[in-house]
Amino acid sequence: MRILYQWIGDGSQRIRENYNASDSRSLHITGAAGAFCMLLGLGKIISGALSLSVFACMNGCYTLGMTAARYCALAGTVRSKERKNQYFYYRLAGAAMVAASLLYVAYSLWTIRHPKTVNYGKITAITIATITFTEIGVNVWGVIKYRKYHSPLLHALKIISLGTSLISLVLTQSAILAFADEAQDPSVNGFLGTVTGICAALLGVYMIRRINRIEAEDLYREDSYKENTYNMKGDDLYDSHTGGR
User: Fold this and answer.
1) Where along the chain do its domains lie?
2) Which end of the chain is more exposed for a tag (fewer CB within 10 A), N or C?
3) Could you list the residue ranges that cross the membrane (predicted)?
4) CA atoms in the 13 A half-sphere facing the CB of 171
5) How far is CA 192 from CA 83, 219, 244, in A?
6) For domain 2-214, which CATH number applies: 1.10.10, 1.10.760, 1.20.1510, 3.30.420?
């Protein structure tokens, strides 16, 4: 526990050193929001275990996976403010998002072929709905907060928040219908989970392709700059009187 506190303290200090007051405050809030999302994911798993719902447990595992992706991005932001040094963490966050989303799609496809009705008690349904609505609220805040930021990793936090919100809609719908005592077709949850999971996976692919493009553009600019610098030095060495160097 002491090591954890020290790690958090060191990260907080690096953020304050590398960023202005506004960005530092936003990143600290993002770190706290990630911890809160982790608790929400554990809450889903516990609620799913109490109601014998594998569906709720899988949603909780997805939340934990996306929290890991969020912390990959945040770790890159903490370790360096240089854009080039952040590319690895951006790509890692995108890969984590794709992997978690594809696993969720695989489970959703399985539930379509093996539908199983799960009846939540009212208290459990209210608890799950409250957790998912809270998670959606936190993620929507992240999308809005970072909409104007162009730093690679802050952009990653926005995309991760959007993808997590999509998946949360599936469990929210299931809990609301259970609370309303409406008959559910269990395959509907699987279908909606497949669609939202594919969308979230595509967002992760977009993240990876985007950072590859940005990195290629940076390398091209560096090569162009070096070539121009070399040519300028060559012109400076040219002797106009002798016509040579």
Assistant:
1) 2-214
2) N
3) 26-46, 52-76, 88-110, 122-144, 156-179, 191-208
4) 37
5) 37, 41, 73
6) 1.20.1510
Q: Is the pLDDT of residue 4 over 50?
A: no
For residues 179-201, average pLDDT: 79
Burial degree of 183 (CB within 10 A; 0-12, 13-18, 19+): exposed
**142-149: long-range pairs with CB below 8 Å, 24+:** 142/30, 142/33, 145/26, 145/30, 146/26
CB 178 within 8 A of CB 125: yes
- As to burial, measured by CB atoms within 10 angstroms (0-12 exposed, 13-18 middle, 19+ buried), residue 81 is middle
Cβ atoms within 10 Å, residue 79: 16
Joined together, the tokens standing for residue 43 give 């809450």
Report the amino acid identity of residue 215: E
Which pair of structure tokens corresponds to residue 147?
A: 């909409």
The two three-digit tokens of residue 17, written as one number: 């050193």
Q: Is the pLDDT of residue 205 over 90?
A: yes
Burial class (CB in 10 A: 0-12, 13-18, 19+), 189: buried
Which percentage of the chain shows pLDDT scores above 70? 66
Amino acid at 90: Y
Supply 104's token pair: 């969720």
Pairwise CA distance, residues 204 & 70, whole Å = 12
